[in-house]
Amino acid sequence: MLLDVIQCVESGRFVIIQDSVQCCGRQLLQSFMCAALKREEVVHVLAFDVAEEDLRVPSDSGCAQRLCFHDGYTDPLGWNDSPPLTVLQFSPGEIHALLSRSEHPKPVTLVIDSLSWVLRHHPPAVVCQCLQELRRGGAVRSIVALLHSDLHQQGIVGSLCHLATAIVTVAPALRGHHTVAKTTRRTRSGRVTQEEECFIIKEDLTVTVQKQTHHPGQRDTEQEEPQADPAAHLTFNLRLSEAEKEAKDKLSLPFVFSQEKKSALLQPRPGAGQIIYEPDANDDFDQEDPDDDLDV
Amino acid sequence: MAAPLRSGIGVGSRQDTRAVHGTSFQKKSRGKLVSIPGTRPSVQNGQLLVSTGVTSLDYVIGGGLAVGTLLLIEEDKYDSYSRMLLKYFLAEGVVCGHSLFLGSARDPPEEILQELPAPVLDDIGCAAGDEGQAKLCDSEGEDSMKIAWRYQNFPKVQTALAASSRFGHYYDVSKTMDPEMRQASKCNTFFLPDELPLKSEAEPSTMNAGYRALLRSIQNLIHREGFDTAAPQNKSRNILRIGLHSLGSPLWGDDICCKESPSDAVSLTSFLYGFRALLRSSLCVGMVTVPSHLIQNRAIMGRVTKLCDTAIALESFRGSERETNPLYKDYHGLLHVRQTPHLNCLVCEVPDTKDLAFKLKRKQFAIEPHAAVDLLVRQPPSEPPIEPPTARRGRPVRDYMCNCKSCSPSVCAMQPGSGRGGVGGGGELLSDMAGI
């Protein structure tokens, strides 16, 4: 499912990559950038945590044109003259202005590295409102943000994740160079899927999923053994041959009349009975839907 | 469908007889309020009730929502089912012809309104298709009915009540409501990002700007459209359903979700206080969803619950270890009734059982007492066999009946019985008799 999240092109998506001091999620962020560039999307990066060189992705010239860095690392608080980007500029209006400065009019993918730095300087409610406004605005097609979840109170992380359409939590695997990603994805209709996967990021920043460590819901199906056919070994005959079927059809059941007699009886006669039924609020009517097991 | 006509005739004839005999007897006329569609008086205290849109939820909270009260829904972790309940609440308003008000800070209200589930109305097309159906039976059913052929000429009987006369409806969540139907009802919306730039300058207030704007908007609507009880009674009255989505979330500018000791801890509570005061003096009924799992300070959540009349909490199994627990395999989550209203009385309606679980089916949001009852019958195989009780040991019978932690003794003492068994049996009996 991690690959689905990386390749998803749904508009208005908001992915949070949660990492901690044990496991860095920046490389995964870079693979998100790389995948977006390969899809011919315009990528804007708000880099607060690390310098531009550390966040570069290997790319050809066409990609480099569509990748736009906004450096918030060298002068984050605007102490020098004319800083390129300060953290105080993190508001819907200012970001829209930044995005419109580039010549690509297409909707963009906004990459934020990282939200933790922004949260140090803005109240969480303001950050949430800003992100939601950006998603809704139309200029931004999707937002991918890194969040160092061990730096913040649980409530702040929870509030931000409440807004996200997909959350990827990275953690080190027990052995090897793998990283474990726990992905939670929420669709527009409110359906939630969760999966835990082991993955490796190659040198060209493509993600390869090694194996699925845990798949909730799958365990149940595996445990179920194939049911033995109960009609397999019977001491009596349960099936009918063709000849037997014919003979059975020929047999006339009691109270089954010939066509003529039936139609004569079915003619409405004067004085015949009639059933009148008016539904009442107190009737015990079974609302159970026989098709409930079909997929909602 | 024939019912209104018949009752009309009945009234007419009664008036005639009164004219003839000249008695002073007059039938006690019901209050004006009862004539509002989609409402009914409570059997306990006579309060005017409206349906939440989920029939089983109505039952759990004591028949329905009393007009002038507020229902709090504590959201499940991913806001899937609480959002569904909000949509049911609004859809019920559309079907009953009530006015709607929807406030939201996250998704535009129009988006939520577009997703309203389609009502299952079984009276649609029945009148037209009645004769057609009878004929259909005539031609096709000739050979299909071998035993009960006597019934093949009878017209099909409509077994369900006409939907409009019912209290509470069923909805098909796989379809969305017809836009024409939706637009027939008056709907007002409040979307915080659209409203907030219009706000006046910061006034000294205990409420933050978002809540203040919302409360003003509701207040204006109630006065403008005449939903307050002080308004002149001459014109026909209607109910206003107010749904507020994800109140208290950071998008409303509230920080109770983020911090243990938030800077404006009283914002939400003052809003609810004002909101409830508005509801009490008007023909409105409110539903508020709150992401309680994010609210850090339990004291605030306690205050919020106290300020609402009815409070329920949804706990979805999605993403928790309970999802794979065989005990809960038939359900999507648990429903906790936190509070039921005390209306004009000292004691409140107490639900039969507190161990409730819900399941979202295609045509029904079902709330049932959960599998604790089943445990009495089917013990898990890993458990050692339980010895039958003996009088010598003197152990209370209840102890061995159920040893799961989750259910309370009161449930375990309950007899399994759904009250549904008799219906199917009766039907079969009838068809058997028909053949003979």
Automatic annotation (TrEMBL), chain A:
Where, per UniProt, does this protein localize? Cytoplasm; Nucleus
Q: Which GO terms describe its biological process?
A: tRNA wobble uridine modification
Tell me if Cell cycle is a UniProt keyword of this record. Answer: no
The annotated regions of Acidic residues compositional bias extend over 280-296
Top-rank taxon of the source lineage equals Eukaryota
The molecular function terms of the Gene Ontology recorded here are: tRNA binding
Please name the InterPro entries in this protein's record. Elp5, P-loop_NTPase
Any Pfam family the entry gives: Elong_Iki1
> Annotated region Disordered: where?
210-229, 262-296
GO annotations of cellular component type: cytosol; elongator holoenzyme complex; nucleus
PANTHER family linked to this entry: ELONGATOR COMPLEX PROTEIN 5 (PTHR15641)
- Which protein are we looking at? Elongator complex protein 5
- Look up and give the organism this protein is from: Scleropages formosus (Asian bonytongue)
From TrEMBL, chain B:
Q: Which domain of life is it from?
A: Eukaryota
Q: Does the keyword Cell cycle apply?
A: no
Its GO biological process annotations read: tRNA wobble uridine modification
Look up the record and name the pathway of this protein.
Answer: tRNA modification; 5-methoxycarbonylmethyl-2-thiouridine-tRNA biosynthesis
Instruction: Kindly indicate whether the keyword Metal-binding belongs to this entry.
Output: no
Q: Which UniProt keywords apply?
A: Cytoplasm, Nucleus, tRNA processing
Q: What InterPro entries does the record tag this protein with?
A: Elongator_complex_protein_4, P-loop_NTPase
The record's subcellular locations are: Cytoplasm; Nucleus
List, alphabetically, the GO terms of the cellular component aspect: cytoplasm; elongator holoenzyme complex; transcription elongation factor complex
Tell me any Pfam family this protein matches. PAXNEB
Region annotation Disordered: where it falls in the sequence: 1-23
Q: What does this protein do?
A: Component of the elongator complex which is required for multiple tRNA modifications, including mcm5U (5-methoxycarbonylmethyl uridine), mcm5s2U (5-methoxycarbonylmethyl-2-thiouridine), and ncm5U (5-carbamoylmethyl uridine). The elongator complex catalyzes the formation of carboxymethyluridine in the wobble base at position 34 in tRNAs.
- Hey, which family's this protein in? Belongs to the ELP4 family.
Q: PANTHER family of this UniProt entry? A: ELONGATOR COMPLEX PROTEIN 4 (PTHR12896:SF1), PAX6 NEIGHBOR PROTEIN PAXNEB (PTHR12896)
Q: Know the name of this protein?
A: Elongator complex protein 4
In its UniProt entry, the species of origin is given as Scleropages formosus (Asian bonytongue)
List the gene name.
ELP4
